[in-house]
Write a structure and sequence with these properties.
Tetracycline Repressor, domain 2; mainly alpha
């Protein structure tokens, strides 16, 4: 699909899925909103699910590139993790349709069946950060990679759900410290006496 066609299609699709319940959106409505014919949409995607998952995959993949760029040269492990959170939330501040669609609208059971649900690009970057942090004894060595990733995603999900519940009246980056500090408490090594 050409970039020109994506520019016509993607914003309208994200707008529809962030404004309406997933099951209320159909290809006919997408065609009407974007001016892209149903035939053209079906030429590239077999269903509205394939379409939205392809868009989310392409959009969310940008976060890994941004994180990789932003943490280059950073040494302080805590600040690296904080930067990961900040870059992620800044992306969603700038792309609220992606945030709402990915975290609120799309039925998780349906998305989990699609290959785009597993974010291997994110995991590669996070895995290296975790390895470095463990090698420097900056995080709890008893935590497994899976536990750390789960904690990261749980905090992200809860943070975005609260933001949406509050009608998106603030920027995600404005209140990041409360959520980051919670995540960091999970990560730091337990010392004797605690």
């Amino acid at each position: 699909m050409s970039d020109k066609l994506k520019q016509r299609l993607y914003p309208g699709v994200l707008e529809l899925f962030s404004d309406y319940d997933f099951h209320r959106v159909n290809v006919r409505e997408i065609s009407k909103r974007t001016g892209v014919s149903s035939g053209t949409i079906y030429k590239y995607f077999g269903s509205k699910e394939e379409l939205i998952f392809a868009i989310l995959d392409e959009q969310i993949a940008q976060i890994s590139v941004l994180i990789s760029t932003q943490i280059t040269g950073m040494k302080d492990i805590k600040e690296i993790f904080r930067k990961v959170f900040w870059v992620t939330m800044d992306f969603y501040d700038r792309n609220p349709g992606v945030a709402v669609t990915a975290f609120i609208t799309v039925p998780m059971r349906t998305w989990m069946q699609d290959k785009s649900y597993n974010r291997h690009d994110d995991l590669t970057i996070l895995k290296q950060i975790i390895i470095d942090a463990k090698n420097k004894n900056k995080i709890d060595p008893s935590l497994s990679f899976s536990q750390i990733i789960d904690a990261y995603y749980m905090v992200c999900y809860r943070y975005i759900h609260n933001w949406y519940y509050c009608k998106m009246t603030y920027k995600l980056t404005e209140r990041i410290d409360d959520y980051f500090n919670l995540f960091w408490k999970i990560m730091i090594p337990v010392t004797k006496g605690n």
